[in-house]
Amino acid sequence: GENVEQHPSTLSVQEGDSAVIKCTYSDSASNYFPWYKQELGKRPQLIIDIRSNVGEKKDQRIAVTLNKTAKHFSLHITETQPEDSAVYFCAAPPRGGGYNKLIFGAGTRLAVHP
Amino acid sequence: DGGITQSPKYLFRKEGQNVTLSCEQNLNHDAMYWYRQDPGQGLRLIYYSQIVNDFQKGDIAEGYSVSREKKESFPLTVTSAQKNPTAFYLCASSIGRDIPSGTEAFFGQGTRLTVV
Known about the structure:
The structure holds two protein chains of two kinds.
Chain A: E1 5-7, E2 10-14, E3 19-24, E4 32-38, E5 45-51, E6 56-59, E7 62-67, E8 72-77, E9 86-92, E10 103-104, E11 108-113
Parallel strand pairs in A: 2-11
Antiparallel strand pairs in A: 1-3, 3-8, 4-5, 4-9, 6-7, 7-8, 9-10, 9-11
Chain B: E1 4-7, E2 10-13, E3 19-25, E4 31-37, E5 43-51, E6 54-57, E7 64-66, E8 76-78, E9 87-94, E10 106-107, E11 111-115
Parallel strand pairs in B: 2-11
Antiparallel strand pairs in B: 1-3, 3-8, 4-5, 4-9, 5-6, 7-8, 9-10, 9-11
């Protein structure tokens, strides 16, 4: 079936360290890969996305890398801060694409300790 | 705040009763979605709609129904046929119009449904 696998499910780091979350997808035709952050009790919000015509995109302390050959993409957070603590979801279009529909990973709970 | 509103925030219902969750957006988005969120399982798609008067089943549509009579509104009914309805439900919208490259989805604040 269609799925997006996300690892790890939980991640604990010290403030100032880097955090990396990885997702794999199944459809080689997929071309849009967003990352959402959900703070406790709040709605998911887009933090960064990447399209298949680029291999990397950065926005201040966060970056996303895409390996189309291996069909995986990763979220990198540098110089982590306590406010980065949240659940992070990756997503990708389903097999066959189209209709702007996204399949989400199971999420990674990131804890940044002061 | 975000242009997409879900109500109510918390909902309690007795087992066997149908219940309808509201979702309204003023972003002029064509596409709207309902997701269910359970601990450790991410966001699972229940139903989605790309245009008024049309909607499609997602991965876990059994026991749910929707309507899309207006562009702004996409209510979700949790029926008595849904075997495990207690969950956190999230509504989302995006520009849609069959943009295969994908665009940002904007989420509502969610409704936590508890069936007792």
